[in-house]
Amino acid sequence: MSANAHGPSEALKGLVRRQYFWGIVAIALLLLVNLIKDPGYLAVSIGSSGNLVGNVIDILRAAAPIILIAVGMCLVVATGGIDLSVGSVMVVAGAVSMEFLKGAPDTVGSGLAAIGLVVVVSAALGAVNGALVSVVGLQPFISTLVIMLAGRGLAKVITGGQNTSATNETFRWIANGYVLGLPVVFLLALLLAVAMGLLVRRSALGLMLEAIGMDAKAARLAGVNRRALLFTVYILGGVLAGFAGVFATASVMTVDVSRTGYQLELDAILAVVIGGTSLAGGKFNITGAVVGAILIATLDKTVVFLGVSSSATPAFKAVVIVVLCLLQSERVRRMFRQRRAAGAARPAEREVVAA
Amino acid sequence: MPESLPIVEMAGISISFPGVKALDAVGLRLFPGEVHTLMGENGAGKSTLIKALTGVYKIDEGEIRIAGEPRRLSGTADAQSAGISTVYQEVNLCANLTIGENVMLGHEVRGAAGINWRATHRAAGATLEKLGLGHLNPKQPLATLPLAVQQLVAISRSMVAKCKVLILDEPTSSLDANEVEQLFTVMRGLRDQGVAILFVSHFLDQVYAISDRLTVLRNGRFEGEYRTHELDRAQLISKMIGKDIAALKSLGAKASRRARPDAEPLYSAKGISRKGAIDEVDIDLHRGEVVGLAGLLGSGRTELARLIYGADRPDTGEVTMNGEKAEISTPAKALARRIAFSSENRRDEGIVRDLSVRENLVLAVQARRGWARPLPRREQDAIVEKYMSALGVRPADPERPVRLLSGGNQQKVLLGRWLATEPDILILDEPTRGIDVGAKAEIQEYVSVLADEGLSVLFISSEIEEVVRQSDRIIVLKDHRKIAELEGGQGVSAESIVTVIAEDGLGDPSADAAVREEVTT
Amino acid sequence: MSALTTHPTAEPTGVRALAKRLSLHLDTLPTAAAVVIFIGMIVYGEAAYGRIVQFNTLSNLLINNAHLVILTVGLTFVILTGGIDLSVGAVIAFSSVAGVMLMNAGWNPWLAMLLMVLIGTAFGAASGVLVQYFHVQPFIATLAMMFLGRGLASILSTVPERLADDSPLRSLGTQIEIYDGPKVDDIVITPGVIIAAIVVAAAFFVLHRTRTGRTVYAIGGSEQSAALMGLPVAATKMWVYIISGTLSGLAAVVYTARLGSAQNITGIGWELDAIAATVIGGTLLTGGAGFVLGSVVGALVLGLMNVLITRDGGIPPEATTIITGGILLVFVLLQRAVLARRRE
After folding, report:
1. Is residue B256 in some structural domain?
2. Closest Cα to residue C271, out of A311, A95, A84, A266?
3. How far is it, in rounded angstroms, from Cα B110 to Cα C209?
4. What's the pLDDT score for residue C97?
5. What mean pLDDT, rounded, does chain B reach?
6. Residues of B in contact with A210 (CB under 8 A)
7. Is the pLDDT at C11 greater than 50, yes or no?
8. Is Cell membrane one of the keywords UniProt gives this record (chain C) (predicted)?
9. A interface toward B at CB cutoff 8 Å?
10. What CATH code would you report for A19-305?
11. Nearest-CA neighbor of B302 among B293, B310, B291?
C-alpha cells in the first residue's frame, strides 16, 4: 500500500497478505501439539508392501476429499455465490457408485464405469444449481440449499434408505492404494487441485470469475458472459464433489446415506475462508483452499489423537468461521486500519466516496 | 424575510476525497421562513454540502450550528429529530407500500389496539390535501403513481415529520410545469409557516420565482451569499461559471465541425424502442463524427445508449451495421461488433473497484476473446502502456487497485478499457461527471482526437454546453422520445437546444413553461 | 392541478379499471393461491384416501405442525426484510437437547423451558449482530449459526435424550379434548397449538399494527429508502433475527413437549420446510410483501402433504425433502413470473 515501507514491516505485511501462511502455521502448531503428546507422531515408516505408513500419511489421505470440495467451493465463492450442496452431491455420488457396483462384476471396467456414472450424475446436480443460479437468477444459497436437502433424500431413494456396500478392487484401490509410496487419493486430489489451479490461472477464467464476484453489473457491461461462466463453475463444483464422494465411499466400500458427506459443506467453506478467500466474492486463492483443507484434516486427526470428544469439532469450526467472517468485515478491517494509522503518520487511504 | 437568528449556520466546512477537495471552507446560513437556493454547476459541491449538513459525510474542518447550538448530526434519523428533512432527486420511498403508509411511516396514528389505520389514512389524506393531492387515494399502492407524483408524496412525508428545515435536492428535475407550480405553492405555504427551505435546482427561472436568498458554490468553494433580487441572472450565471458575461456568449458554440462523409452510416437503427425506457427512435452513426445526445434528466438519454449497446434488450426496431442486419441484444454481442459503452454509473457499472488498473484495462478485450484464450502478458503490457500514457493515468502503477485512484483517473482507466477493444463506435455516457476539472478537460480533448482519427462517438452529458462543444450532430430527446436532430456548428448553442426542448409540444397546455421562460432570459 | 389529476387515475373505465383493481391486489394473489392449494389438497385427499375431512385428522394436522407454524412465523419476519435465517433447525436441536438434559439433571423445568427460549434469542441476537453491524451476508451469518447450533447439540449428546415421564414439559403436549365426536373423531388441541395460535396472533398484530412491523415491510421494499426516511433500520433488523431465534427456541419447547425426547439430529432440514412454508404462503423471498397468515397456510400445506404421502404409501418417505424442495422452487419461479408481469 504505502511505497515507503521498508524492511521487516514490509516482509510482515507480505506474510499477512498471504492469509494461508497462517494456515500453515496452524498446521505446524497442531503437529507440534501431537509431537509433545507422542514424540514419535511424525514418524513415517515403510510398510509391508513398500508403502509409507504414519500419522502424516493418514492426515493426507483424510484431506483428499476436503481438498476437492474446497477447490470447487473456492471457485463458486469467487463469483459471489456459495454451494451448500457439496456434501449431498458426495452422498449421491457414493450411492450411485455403490448401487451400480453392487450388481456389477468386480472388474476394472465396471470400476471405471462407476466413476463415469458419478461424473455424469454429479455434473447433472451441478448443472441444476448452475441453471437455477444463472438462468433463473435465484440466490445461490437457496438453489443449493434445496439440492443440499433434496440430494440426501435422493441418495436415500437411490439406495432404498439402506447403507449399501459393494466390492470392486479398482474402486477400492483409489482410496486405499499407493503410488510411489503415497496414497492414491491424496495424489489424485492434488493432481485435480493443480489442474484446476492451472486452468483458472493460465486461462482468463480466474479474472472473469473475480470480475463477476466483485461487480456483476460492470462485468456484464464489459462483455463477460456471466451466465455461461456461472454454469461452468457450478458444474465444476459438482464434479469435484462427486470425486470427493467416490473418495469418501471407496475407502470402506460403503455409502452411509445419513453420514457420508454430512456437514462437509462446513469444512469446504471453512477451508476456503482460511485460505484467504472472502465469502463476499472476488479475489480467490486455490492454494489457500488446499492449505485450509489440510489444516482441517490435521485438526480432525489431532482431536481424535488427543482423545478429545470429536463431537466438539463442528462447533469449534463454526466459531472459527464466525471469527474469520468478522475479520473480513469492513468494520473490523477499518478498526485495524485506524490502529495501524495511529502508529504511522499518514492516515489510512480513504476510498473514493464522491460520485 | 425576518432577520432573526439563523436556524442553520455552517461555517468553514471542508471535506476532501482522494484527488478532489469536494468542499473548501464553505459557509451556509438558513433563516426560518425563507426559501434559500443553493446554486452551482455540476460538481460545485451542492450535494456534498447537503450531505455534510445531514451527517451522511464526515466533515474534515468547520462547524455546524443548529438553532445556535454547535451540533454534529449523525445521519438521517438524527437530522429528522433535529427537524431537518430531505427530499432527494430520486424518490426514496417504499414502492411496496401504500401512498398513505409512505406519507405516515414512522408517524402512524396509534391507539389502544396499535396503529389506527383509519385515522392514519385520514391523516395522510389531510396532509396530501394540503399539497393539493387530495384526489389521491391513500390506500392505493405507491407503485401505481408516476414518478413526479411520488416526489410530491415524498414532500408531504416531510411535512408530517414537522420539520423546521426542509432540504429539496433537485426535486423539480422530473416534474412538469404544473407540478412545479404546485410544488411552489406548497413551498410558499411552508415558508409562511416559518419553515426554512433549502432548494437546489438547475432552472434559473425557478430560482427567481421562489427563492428569497441564494448561496453560490463553484468548484467546492464559497462564491457568495446574495439576496435573490439583488443579483440579476447574468451576474448569477457568471458567478456560477466563474466567467464574465462576454465570455459566456461564445461559450457552448462549437468553432467548426468535422465534415461528415456522405458514405452510408456505420450504424443505423430504425424504430428501436423499449417499453418504459424510450419510444421508437431512428439513429444513424457515421465514422469520424461525434453525435451528442441532449436532453434533461429522465429524457431517455441513458436508456437509448443502453439499447444501442444491448445492455437492455430492445422490444422493437431494426439495426443495420455496414449495411447488413445486426442483432445486438447483449453487451457481448455489441463488443463483438466493435461497439463499446462507458456507463454513467462509473462506480457500479464501470470499473471493477477491487481489480488492478491492468486487469480493468484488459477486461473487455479479454471478455471478447473468451476465457479460454488468455491475452498474453506481452499484449497486456502493450495495452496497459499505451492507454496509461495516452490518457495520462496517474499514478502510473498498473498493479494498483483501481479503487485507490481518483474519480478522474478511474474514468480514464474506464475509457482506456473501451479503447483497448478498438471500437468503431464508442458510447460515452456522462464521461466527465464528478471528476476534477483537469481530468475533465483531458477527456474532452481526447474525445475530439478520437473522432478525428475516424471513430464514431456517441456523447452524452447532462451539461448541454458540453454536448454542444463536443458534437458534430445533436439528437435532442424529451420525455423518452427523439424530438429533433440538429447539425452542430456555429448555429447551434446550448440556448438553441433548450429552445427546441421548450418549444416542443407548445400547443400542449402542459408544456414545460418553466424551461421556456428560461430560454427567454 | 388539473394536469395532476389526469395522471394517476386516467380513465378508470372498463377493462383497464378491472386490470388496475386486480393489480392492486396482486400481492395477495400468491396467498390466495396457497389457500386454494390447501383446499384442493384436502378435497383430493378426501376423494383419494378418505378420512381427511374429519375432526381427528385436522386436529392432528394442527398438533403435529404447531412447531412448524411457530418457526414459519419467525422466518416470515426475517424474509419480509429481505433476509434469511438458516439456523432455525439447528437452534431447535441445541435448545431441545440442552433443555431436556437440564430438566433430567434436576433443574426447575419452567426455568429450563425459559432457558430453551432464551437460547434461541441468543442465537438470533448473534446472527443479527453479524448481519447488521458486521455486514456479513444473512445466509452466511445464519449458516455459521446453523453449524454452531448443530455442533453444540452434538457436544451435549449424540443419543436421544428422553424426557422424564412426569416432566411438566410434557403437559404442553397433553391432548385436550374440546369436542367429543363419534368414536375417536374428536376435536383435540394441545397447549402447543394454543401457543402457536397466540404467536400467530401476536405476529399479525406486530406486523400490521405497530411501527416496528411497518418498518419490517419498509426495509423489505427498499432498505436505503427506509434509512433515508429516518426509520430505525438497524434496530429493526436486529429485532427480526431476535424474533426468529426466540421463536425457534419456543418451537423447540413445543416440539419437545409433544415428542417427549430430544436429539442432536432433530430439525435437520426444517429450515427448508420453514422457508418453503413462508414462500408458499405468499411472502416474497426478496422481501417487502407477504402475510404471516399466508405462512401459516403454507405450513399447513406442507403438513397435509406429509399426511397424504403417508396415506398414499407409494411414495417413499425419503422423497419428502425432494418434493418440498421442488415445491419451493416452483413457488419461487411463480413469484418471479408475477414480479416480471407487474414490472411491465
Report:
1. no
2. A84
3. 8
4. 95
5. 83
6. 352, 354-355
7. no
8. yes
9. 202-205, 207-208, 210-211, 214-215, 217-225, 229, 282-283, 349-355
10. 1.10.3470
11. B293
